[in-house]
Specification:
Structural class of chain A: mainly alpha
Membrane topology (chains A, B, C): Multi-pass membrane protein
Helix content of chain A: over 70%
Keywords (chains A, B, C): Cell membrane, Membrane, Transmembrane, Transmembrane helix
Strand content of chain A: under 5%
Pfam family, one (chains A, B, C): Gly_transporter
Number of helices of chain A: 10
Protein name (chains A, B, C): Trimeric intracellular cation channel family protein
Oligomer: homotrimer
Number of domains of chain A: 1
Distance between the termini of chain A: 45 Å
Family (chains A, B, C): Belongs to the UPF0126 family.
Largest interface: A-B, 28 and 29 residues
Radius of gyration of chain A: 17 Å
Chain lengths: ~230, ~230, ~230
């Protein structure tokens, strides 16, 4: 399949380069989050590395499988693996430090979410998906890794409950889709989309914004604990 | 790949149309079941919509990935998404009503199971799979969404324990496979297959039919609770 | 895609035959482990068969999806299904016997791990993946079934914590990759790789070798129970 819209791109930065850079930075950040969750549940070194890789790449692998980009980039390109393992090893040996930076990791995680959402949307568009589905794929790329991390640790995925998590990813992806439809430059659209997603998620964390729950009466149950763990 | 057996079909209803209609009705029903489970576990609005979509489409997506129909219909065709979201929104805002209708939802769920099993088998046959595997794919299409729903909510999938659930799907799929082998008209075979699956599941619910458990002595444990929750 | 390296193979045993034989024996052993776990959690006959099939084939199916070998061998070839069901039925009706042989099943499981790791690596190499990724795919083939089994039963996958489980698979896969690079005969390399993986895992079980856990102080928690269950 021939990527569409390649002509919109400035010479100095192709969509492919852009996707790669966004992806690798996002990979590192999400691998950190997977490794920290694994260390907390006392998995051994290997388990920590697997969780790093799963949290960092599951969203992208799902996207690539579904749009027919086989073998997925995260498997075909050693850099994703290397970046994931690096993040896992750092966390394993320096986890008190990483833990102390947990709030900052949450900020990084918001940044990673924006990067993945934007990169995923670009890739889906370049495979010819329609705008609505491309935005959804951006969201899946952003939240897939967190879902895999939590399912492997037998927790209800935080992204299904945390403060505007998936909605922020969807918002960033929507910016990219609209920008592409209006033929704005990809690099500009990417920056705006990622920043919008990041900003929304950041505000949601600071102000504990939440989506409504059906019924409304809020008794804290054991099941809402996952969300609280993340905020700590 | 060229669908086989297309010549068996009456002019007024192609296999493609049939699969689409069966699929969309089944999608709505399964999305309801996913949304209700999510509301019970107190997920927020977004979580409810994700569970709707996952429960409604995971079986079909798995089938399409495995038979090489990429991108899967549930992703390429906006109607699956629209129907899933509609069911999710209705459940979110009207869940006491939906809850009161829970028994009727179980009946709908049995209907959806029949529809998905039949649609999945047709699609697998049209991609040239052998009859045994086509029947299995019909079953996977029927039960996949329920498995995804339960795994995301960290419960042992009900379909692995409920009353003849997967077996009913397999029975409906087998009818389709046999009918296709005997070159009976697709529409007739579909109706009979879906009705057979539905009837079997309906009788199993009413009479609490169960498959045997190894060993046999039946002490009710915390682990059998999932099944009971569904029946309520 | 044209398998590469087919010329390295002796006439009497092609890589395809080798992969098939290794795969089927491994399938039987892993199906046993899935069925036993299902019987312990008191799933019904059907649930036991599903767990047999999932534990036996999920690793290979994941590998085939990711390298683009669609439809996956485990689905296209009835022998995988037949072998899985056979193991499931034997376990269901003879589970006290199988249970008494649990230690021996653990030995078989180690053998299956070696067989799958080697078979998976061969297949990935024959699809042209680079050596590092081929070794990783060998590991995924080996551990994937166990992950699926545990996630379906809502347990943290044992392979993320058990004694050198995944590392043994990776070691066996690495032998195959190195052997292929040095153009040694496939059959020889397979035997050495599988034996190395088996030996490593066997020693790890006997001596309770473990990888380090971050932090180090080892208090036994409810979460480490999965590992102990397996050793019993």
């Amino acid at each position: 399949m021939e990527p569409v819209g390649i002509t919109l791109v400035k010479k100095e930065l192709t969509v492919d380069h852009l996707v790669l850079i966004l992806d690798l930075v996002g990979t590192f950040v999400f691998a950190l989050s997977g490794a920290m969750a694994a260390v907390r549940r006392r998995l051994d070194l290997f388990g920590v590395l697997v969780l790093s890789f799963a949290a960092a790449t599951f969203g992208g692998i799902t996207r690539d499988l579904l749009i027919g980009a086989v073998p997925p980039a995260a498997i075909n390109d050693w850099r994703y693996l290397a970046v994931s393992l690096l993040a896992g090893i750092i966390t394993f040996f320096r986890h008190p430090t990483v833990n102390r930076l947990a709030t900052r990791v949450l900020i990084f995680d918001a940044a990673g979410l924006g990067l993945f959402a934007v990169a995923g949307t670009h890739k889906a568009l370049s495979y010819g998906l329609n705008p609505v589905m491309a935005a959804l794929f951006g969201m899946v790329t952003g939240i897939g890794g967190g879902v895999a991390r939590d399912v492997l640790l037998t927790e209800i995925p935080v992204v299904l409950r945390a403060e505007l998590y998936a909605l922020a990813a969807l918002a960033g992806a929507t910016v990219v889709v609209c920008g592409a439809a209006l033929q704005f430059p990809s690099a500009l659209v990417s920056v705006v989309g990622a920043a919008f997603c990041f900003g929304l998620r950041y505000m949601a964390i600071r102000n504990s914004w939440k989506l409504p729950v059906a019924g409304g009466h809020e008794e804290p149950t054991e099941e809402t604990q996952g969300t609280r763990d993340v905020k700590k």
